């Protein structure tokens, strides 16, 4: 009961947040940025958290989404958001192309391979004239219609991002309870055991990777709609990939709300330090940022949400019978 | 074969030897305790700054900066091991990425805050001159770095495969509990591995600084090369890192010469993905 009340209060807070900070651009922007980061990290969570395949190359999909949105504007004159479905479709295809060879690799090798693929795409994008080369491409400077999503404040973006995040978390929640969720967790715990029990692990890892890629791409398209500009570094840069991993891991990977919690901590930390300290001080705040990450990894290796996990001291009666040995 | 191509291959080999040296620190830790150090590039960066500081403050050349960087980064490695890595290595793989990446940010921006963002270079005259042998020109700085890198990498390989210390480390990497029953202290051996990896990385940094720009973010670029070299060569294998480093150095130089400088990274990454596809354990890794 208490849990539902708490949860309900959080939902209400999320809905009225823009009204509370109305007229303070820094905080309006911050809310939207937290949600955008949470979309990216939650999308990563499907393959990285639930299936345990730690991709450090998700910027490939993010960049694909961002570039798809800007390319339909520069080359076809469409509003950038029209590129989002295109980006998602291409990302699903791309996920299959990248996933089939790399998902065979296990553990660190998969991570390394995704880093290499990410860097490969970044370098290629900076040599492509179609994508604006190293300078990148910009969206519409002046809004031509409401579909260009150009607003005076960040609040409309806040609600768009909130709707997308709610949909993504709902989908993840559904997967978590469906057959696929059990398969993914089985693969994460032991791929060999999962295979022995008849889970076609390769196929389900690929499904998770494709789904994750599609929503990461959507995050990229939304990023472009808000910022109106992308270059190889802000689209495909390795820091984009790493931030998704770090946010999810900080909150708790494989946990529905883990990425959101991570984003709630890291985005304000980064934004506030940039706006208040700036210049040389920015270096110092990233020192603190790094130190906080180190401390959390050291003392809470399963993420912040592991603090609220139900205590293992109350084992279900079933497991006592099943294990047969005293622990 | 033209002299230019020979020249290109020679400079690729010299560069590859340095790649091998700074990848060997990463592969040692990875193979020994299955931890990927995402702060590895930033260890190299601090090695490079050590060389810069020694030159600007004391006027010392590579013969002063190489040992200093080795000692400093080895200390940093041991400290990281005892304060951080020892605790996160039993956790999930994500905790390792989180912890070592946090360390990377910490070191990178500490350098940024202290030294500023501008690029620093050591003067050419520090390891000056060049000589010509059979029509191929050798630059002093690159020659020193390449030969130094090759020598230290081979030394590391000999220590790991031919000494009692190396055998103890191998025992710990295969089965820490069994090693402990044989009277080997796993934590001490793992700390030794971090010290050796740190020393190799520091030396590599001090050598690279003689011909490459130094900046707080240079570690990011170098780390990616190190990851590729290690996965290419097979984790835990210093000899594999050496072979992979030399191959990558030559492939980079030759493709930059034949196709164009922008595409040299593309060729290296494609080569890397192909190796992972056909031989996931790397060239010399154990399956």
Explain the overall architecture.
- The complex is a heterodimer of chains A (327) and B (287).
- Chain A is an all-alpha fold.
- Chain A has a domain at 25-237.
- Helix content of chain A is 72%, strand content 1%.
- Chain A has a two-stranded antiparallel sheet with strand order 1-2.
- In chain A, helix 3 packs across helix 9 (201-227), helix 6 packs across helix 7 (179-189) and helix 12 packs antiparallel against helix 13 (281-299).
- Chain A is globular, with a radius of gyration of 21 Å.
- The two termini of chain A are 33 Å apart.
- Mean pLDDT of chain A is 85; it is low at 314-327.
- By secondary structure, chain B is mainly α.
- Chain B has one domain (3-278): ABC transporter involved in vitamin B12 uptake, BtuC.
- Helices cover 75% and strands 3% of the residues of chain B.
- Chain B contains 11 helices and 2 strands.
- Chain B has helices at 3-33, 40-58, 62-88, 93-115, 140-162, 164-174, 176-181, 186-208, 218-233, 238-258, 263-278, and strands at 130-133, 136-139.
- A two-stranded antiparallel sheet of chain B has the order 1-2.
- In chain B, a hairpin with a 2-residue loop joins strand 1 (130-133) and strand 2 (136-139).
- Chains A and B meet through helix 5, helix 11 and helix 13 of A and helix 3, helix 4, helix 9 and helix 11 of B.
Radius of gyration of chain B: 19 Å
> What's the overall average pLDDT of chain B, rounded?
86
Oligomeric state as shown = heterodimer
- By DSSP, the count of extended strands of chain A is 2
- Strand numbers in spatial order across the main sheet of chain B: 1-2
* Residues in helices of chain A, as a percent range: over 70%
Biggest sheet layout of chain B: 2 strands, antiparallel
């Amino acid at each position: 009961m208490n849990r539902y009340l708490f949860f309900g209060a959080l939902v209400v807070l999320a809905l009225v947040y823009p009204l509370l900070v109305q007229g303070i651009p820094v905080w309006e922007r911050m809310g939207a940025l937290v949600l955008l980061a949470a979309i990216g990290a939650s999308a990563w969570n499907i393959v990285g958290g639930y299936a345990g395949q730690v991709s450090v190359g998700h910027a490939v999909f993010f960049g694909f989404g961002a570039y798809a949105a800007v390319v339909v504007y520069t080359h076809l004159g469409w509003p950038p958001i029209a590129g989002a479905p295109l980006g998602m479709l291409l990302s699903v295809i791309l996920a299959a192309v990248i996933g089939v060879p790399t998902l065979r690799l296990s553990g660190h090798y998969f991570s390394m391979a995704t880093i290499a693929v990410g860097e490969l795409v970044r370098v290629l994008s900076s040599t492509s004239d179609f994508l604006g080369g190293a300078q990148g491409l910009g969206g519409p400077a002046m809004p031509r219609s409401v579909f260009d999503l150009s607003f005076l404040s960040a609040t409309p973006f806040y609600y768009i991002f909130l709707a997308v995040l709610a949909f993504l978390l709902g989908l993840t929640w559904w997967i978590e309870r469906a057959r696929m969720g059990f398969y993914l967790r089985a693969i994460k715990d032991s791929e060999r055991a999962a295979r022995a029990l008849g889970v076609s692990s390769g196929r389900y890892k690929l499904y998770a990777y494709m789904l994750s890629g599609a929503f990461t791409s959507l995050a990229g398209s939304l990023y472009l709609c808000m910022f109106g500009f992308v270059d190889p570094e802000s689209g495909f840069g390795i820091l984009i990939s790493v931030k998704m991993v770090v946010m999810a891991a900080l909150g708790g990977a494989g946990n529905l709300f883990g990425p959101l919690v991570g984003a709630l901590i890291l985005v304000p930390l980064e934004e506030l330090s940039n706006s208040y300290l700036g210049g040389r001080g920015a270096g110092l705040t990233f020192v603190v940022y790094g130190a906080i990450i180190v401390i959390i990894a050291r003392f809470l290796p399963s993420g912040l949400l592991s603090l609220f996990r139900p205590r293992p001291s109350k084992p279900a009666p079933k497991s006592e019978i099943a294990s047969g040995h005293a622990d | 074969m033209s002299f230019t191509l020979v020249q290109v291959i020679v400079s690729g080999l010299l560069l590859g030897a340095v790649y091998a040296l700074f990848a060997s620190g990463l592969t040692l830790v990875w193979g020994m305790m299955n931890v990927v150090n995402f702060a590895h590039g930033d260890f190299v960066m601090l090695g490079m700054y050590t060389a810069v500081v020694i030159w600007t403050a004391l006027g010392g050349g590579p013969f002063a900066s190489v040992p200093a960087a080795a000692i400093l980064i080895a200390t940093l490695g041991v400290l990281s091991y005892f304060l951080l890595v020892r605790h996160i290595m039993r956790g999930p793989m994500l905790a390792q990425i989180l912890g070592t990446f946090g360390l990377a940010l910490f070191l990178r921006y500490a350098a940024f805050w202290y030294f500023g963002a501008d690029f620093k270079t050591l003067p050419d005259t520090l390891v000056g001159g060049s000589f010509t042998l059979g029509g191929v020109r050798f630059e002093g700085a690159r020659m020193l770095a390449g030969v130094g890198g090759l020598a230290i990498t081979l030394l590391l390989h000999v220590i790991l495969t031919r000494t009692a210390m190396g055998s103890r480390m191998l025992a710990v990497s295969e089965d820490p509990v069994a090693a402990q029953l044989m009277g080997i202290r796993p934590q001490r051996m793992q700390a030794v591995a971090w010290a050796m990896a740190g020393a190799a990385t520091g030396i590599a940094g001090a050598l690279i600084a003689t011909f490459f720009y130094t900046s707080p973010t240079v570690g990011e670029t170098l780390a990616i090369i190190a990851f590729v070299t290690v996965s290419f060569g097979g984790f835990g294998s210093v000899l594999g890192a050496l072979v992979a480093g030399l191959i990558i150095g030559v492939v980079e130089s030759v493709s930059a010469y034949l196709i164009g400088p922008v595409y040299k990274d593309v060729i290296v990454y494609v080569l890397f993905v192909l190796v992972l596809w056909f031989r996931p354990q790397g060239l010399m890794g154990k399956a």
